[in-house]
Design brief:
about 300 residues; alpha/beta; Rossmann fold; 6-phosphogluconate dehydrogenase C-terminal fold; 2 domains; 6-stranded parallel sheet; globular; binds NADP nicotinamide-adenine-dinucleotide phosphate
Length: about 300
């Protein structure tokens, strides 16, 4: 590991190490942000890959063994695994340790993890808003978080010093950090991330069914727009299953608004309302320009 005068943390435990956990490990190692990394995963095959890639000093199938003695524990498994993992690591956490996570929805993480965090241990939920459609420890890279937002959602009363230390780690990984309420996070992400994935999964599913029924040339002509949806719809099925099951209320609320707007566009097409269509498309084009201007394209 690259040496620095004073790493941000002595011992970090990554519980789960796929795209996000391995990107974090790579960045922490590259820049000497921590002294020791201990990793736990569900399968021996993943731990063997972690050793082959030299991502950690220690590997264990037992999450409690990885978390024992750690100053920082980062839960990096799918949302649905958090409750059981937190229950296992809870008794092993040392006083003063910080538990954080990278989950894509935040109310459910507080619901599942907070009850297992002992007194004297700090809990600072987090979500790096960065990713690709790839999974597993081999798919990570140290620049993943560069210029991307990381949202922290500490429950009321969380120790400010612990929040500051987690913020410093993400900033050292290249992220822009924002602190917000978990409820607000889940609503914002429902429209900016979760709904777009649901739409991609739907459109790719519909087109595939249609192609099977009619021998339509979906793959051949995919460059005409479909291709971008296939990339999003290639995202990890377990991760996305857990996101929809765990951010259900916010996703259903946004889906309700979306279907109303879709019906309005359907009506505009049916009645040949050219101005209405053009007006809507002009507004959305302006949004794309502001995303580019904000360097989030
Ligand atoms: P991933 O590549 O699929 O890796 C998941 C890791 O969790 C693997 O190490 C896996 O171990 C372990 N794991 C899976 N099920 C487990 C279980 N039941 N108990 C213990 N460990 C388990 O996942 P990822 O893409 O890094 O996503 C991890 C988290 O980051 C998710 O909560 C997701 O919401 C969040 N996130 C993802 C993205 C993204 O774009 N991918 C972006 C932001 C946040 P094995 O390999 O041994 O099975």
């Amino acid at each position: 590991m690259a040496a620095t005068a004073s790493p941000l943390f002595e011992r970090v435990a990554l519980i789960g190490i796929g795209l996000i956990g391995s990107s974090l490990a790579r960045r922490m190692r590259r820049d000497g942000l921590v002294r020791t990394i201990a990793v736990s995963a569900r399968t021996e095959a993943t731990l063997a890959k972690v050793r082959e890639l030299a991502l950690a000093e220690e590997t264990s199938l037992d999450p409690a063994a990885a978390a024992a003695g750690a100053d920082l524990v980062v839960l990096c498994a799918p949302l649905g695994a958090n409750a059981a993992l937190a229950e296992k690591i809870g008794p092993a956490l040392k006083p003063g340790a910080i538990v954080t996570d990278v989950g894509s929805a935040k109310r459910c993480v507080i619901r599942d993890v907070a009850p297992h965090v002992p007194a004297g241990v700090h809990f600072v939920p987090g979500h790096p808003v960065a990713g690709t459609e790839h999974s597993g420890p081999e798919s990570g890279f140290p620049e993943l978080f560069e210029g991307r937002w990381c949202i922290l959602t500490p429950p009321a009363g969380t120790d400010e010093g612990a929040v500051a230390r987690v913020r410093t780690l993400w900033e050292a990984c290249g992220s822009l950090v924002e602190v917000m309420d978990a409820n607000h996070h889940d609503h914002v992400l429902a429209i900016t991330s979760h709904l777009p994935h649901l739409i991609a999964y739907t459109i790719v599913g519909t087109a595939t069914d249609l192609a099977q029924q009619t021998q339509a040339e979906v793959i051949k002509f995919s460059a005409s727009g479909f291709r971008d949806f296939t990339r999003i719809a290639a995202s990890d099925p377990i991760m996305w299953r857990d996101i929809f099951l765990n951010n259900r209320d916010a996703v259903l609320e946004m889906l309700g608004r979306f279907t109303e707007d879709l019906t309005a566009l359907q009506r505009a097409i049916r009645w040949g309302e050219a101005d209405r269509l053009e007006d809507r498309f002009r507004k959305t084009r302006a949004i794309r320009r502001s995303v580019i201007a904000a360097k989030q394209a």
